[in-house]
């Protein structure tokens, strides 16, 4: 009896629209970057679909990062979306994402009824998915759009790549798993360190005259995800809005929210040596490849340490493994100044740093075998990297 | 004192040659396919390098599969190898393979001394590796080259692809993890089955008039590796030599040895129904894609089963998951003959079979909902696939 009663209960249309399959796939791919299968909040396993009068908004979130993708009714004279009834639904992210990619036609029709049953049709294919209640989906933070900072997309991607690799992967000091941003006088300084190495970059940004932000720490994971969804070839700018606990990046048809990390980021300036005893200038690529080869015999030992020493006009890189054997390689230096030096360091840290540098040559400044040393691309003052040596000599 | 005595002991040159880096990398990549890191025989973690008067031979083996790659002194008027002293050495496969890929120059010099220390130089890079004794490396079986069977490379790759997917992955009946080959009257019949589905293909081969081989069972894993190292665009033929316990495939500059599986392969002919109650002809691609979509809601349940039924002029594919929802799709058939039918089967098995078919249409012949059914590409009599249904209707 209950069943019959249920079936007779009237179901009304809660949402209905049709959309370009390609645009839907693109939007779903973007918001999927924020969806985690390991979430403890069931509704966050879903993607929220909102059909508004001006287009479709998709939202994915793991509560640390939230991504909104917007598909307008039309753009560049192409029609992408046609709304028959505005409304919302939440659909299981994994299966919805798989389905839209495999639909047979260029157009997808989606309609949800008042019982949350969502009918997706495309060509002769018809899916009826059990939806989740959009009212249960958490609201994204309302961020006041004052004090917008603006930066070109490709510059933002570069500075993420050149700093985020140095964040800590250990939760011992959670604040070190993020990149520290400081903004003052139209300059953005980014620093990351895991306390064994450090990477920093400064760039000019557009901002209101007195816009000053200190101790903004953005999770490294968030920045990696942001970088992935930003269009590589976009000449456009990204707008950034910062609040006490959140940062919002706005690109074309995309909004990326990340929580900020609590805690005070350590003062890294005091780590940077201000004198140097041995200075070398060397080809970035030549040095990187020699380190890469030497590391092949250092991998088996857990620390992956190679030895480095200055010779006349060149440097020697070597490593050895009792089991495998030894490797030596001399690399011509452009310039060697100061004291002779023998030092050992992690090949991985050095390769991480060198692979982020676009300049042809790098300058490495040492202050003895036991002190941190600095790596700077020749001709680019905005980038500075630091590595702590390992005691072996 | 022992140390000093050792150091004064004379070491003599055991092997010396130089080789094109590209050719060495190619050869190493081929023989690495046979090297397993999980071997219990320490010498088999290495690659054997033999410098003969006519070129370099590399050997890799996991004792089930052995691969020999040969690099001649010269080919097509290009000089690839220069031998200064013939000899042999065995080097750790993983590290040697990593090293050769990353060497800086187009030429690689390799020399081993009587203590097995092997010096690899290229450009300014110098590796001294601890070698292993080549005398300890197992000898490959000597195979008498009578009764050679010949088959075109691309045909061999096709028939591997069209049968090997159906081998059993369970060791319950080891003989089913292989593909059964039978050769008679210039015809090669290949069959694989895991007892839930079957794939078979017959092709013409060149062989001596009376060459007859029965119950040859080649491990599926071996055939997969063989297929990977055979050149895709080679118009050349592969020579095949079969002995009681081994099979040898010879391609240009490559020899691939595999052991054969013991045991009697079951008679699969009796599985093939010789009558049919419902026959359909349908677009391979259209049917495959519809099954793929329907399987999206069947994945969560472990068996991945979809339902199929004949309608007037079309077939309906459907599946449902209590949690996710339902999917229906009708696909136009080219032809439907015989009784109406409702049947359920594994979407995975069907997709595995259909994705190996190059014909535009397939014919499926059913003999009722509980009996195995046959899939045959229209216009290609050499291929036959069989799937056992699942009881759900």
* CATH class type of the largest domain in chain A: Alpha Beta
By DSSP, the count of extended strands of chain A is 27
Supply the CATH superfamily name of the largest domain in chain A.
DNA Polymerase III, subunit A, domain 2
**What's the architecture of the largest domain in chain A, going by CATH?**
Roll
Largest two-chain interface: A-B, 31 and 31 residues
| Fraction of residues in helix of chain A | 10-25%
Distance between the termini of chain A: 85 Å
What does the overall shape of chain A look like? Answer: elongated
Strand order of the largest sheet of chain A: 16-13-14-15-27-26-25-20-23-22-21-24
- Low-pLDDT stretches of chain A are 1-8
Work out the strand percent of chain A: 35-45%
Count of discrete alpha- or pi-helical segments spanning 4 or more residues of chain A: 7
Assembly status: homodimer
Organism (chains A, B): Scopulibacillus darangshiensis
Protein name (chains A, B): Beta sliding clamp
GO cellular component, one term (chains A, B): DNA polymerase III complex
Pfam families (chains A, B): DNA_pol3_beta, DNA_pol3_beta_2, DNA_pol3_beta_3
């Amino acid at each position: 009896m209950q069943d019959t009663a249920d079936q007779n209960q009237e179901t009304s249309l809660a949402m209905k629209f049709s959309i370009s399959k390609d645009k839907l796939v693109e939007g779903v791919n973007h918001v999927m970057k924020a969806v985690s299968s390991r979430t403890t909040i069931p509704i966050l396993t879903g993607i929220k679909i909102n059909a508004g009068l001006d287009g479709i908004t998709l939202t994915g979130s793991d509560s640390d990062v939230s991504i909104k993708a917007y598909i307008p009714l039309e753009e560049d004279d192409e029609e992408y979306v046609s709304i028959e009834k505005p409304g919302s639904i939440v659909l299981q992210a994994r299966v919805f994402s798989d389905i839209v990619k495999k639909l047979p036609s260029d157009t997808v029709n989606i309609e949800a009824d008042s019982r949350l049953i969502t009918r997706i049709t495309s060509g002769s294919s018809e899916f009826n998915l059990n939806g989740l209640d959009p009212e249960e989906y958490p609201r994204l933070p309302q961020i006041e759009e004052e004090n917008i900072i603006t930066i070109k997309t490709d510059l933002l991607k570069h500075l993420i790549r050149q700093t985020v690799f140095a964040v800590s992967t250990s939760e011992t000091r959670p604040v070190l798993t993020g990149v520290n941003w400081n903004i003052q006088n139209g300059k953005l300084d980014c620093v990351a360190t895991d306390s064994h190495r450090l990477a920093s970059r400064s760039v000019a940004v557009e901002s209101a005259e007195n816009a000053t932000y200190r101790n903004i720490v953005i999770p490294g994971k968030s920045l990696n995800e942001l970088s992935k969804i930003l269009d590589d070839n976009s000449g456009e700018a990204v707008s950034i809005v910062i609040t006490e606990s959140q940062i919002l990046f706005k690109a074309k048809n995309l909004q990326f929210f990340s929580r900020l990390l609590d805690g005070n980021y350590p003062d890294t300036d005091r780590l940077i040596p201000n004198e140097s005893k041995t200075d070398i200038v060397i080809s970035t690529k030549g040095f990187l490849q020699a380190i890469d080869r030497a590391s092949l015999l250092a991998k088996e030992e857990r620390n992956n340490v190679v030895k480095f020493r200055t010779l006349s006009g060149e440097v020697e890189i070597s490593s050895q493994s009792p089991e495998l054997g030894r490797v030596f390689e001399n690399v011509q230096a452009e310039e060697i100044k100061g004291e002779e030096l023998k030092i050992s360091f992690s090949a991985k840290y050095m390769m991480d740093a060198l692979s982020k540098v676009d300049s042809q040559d790098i300058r490495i400044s040492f202050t003895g075998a036991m002190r941190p040393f600095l790596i700077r691309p020749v001709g680019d003052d905005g980038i500075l990297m630091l590595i702590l040596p390992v005691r072996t000599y």
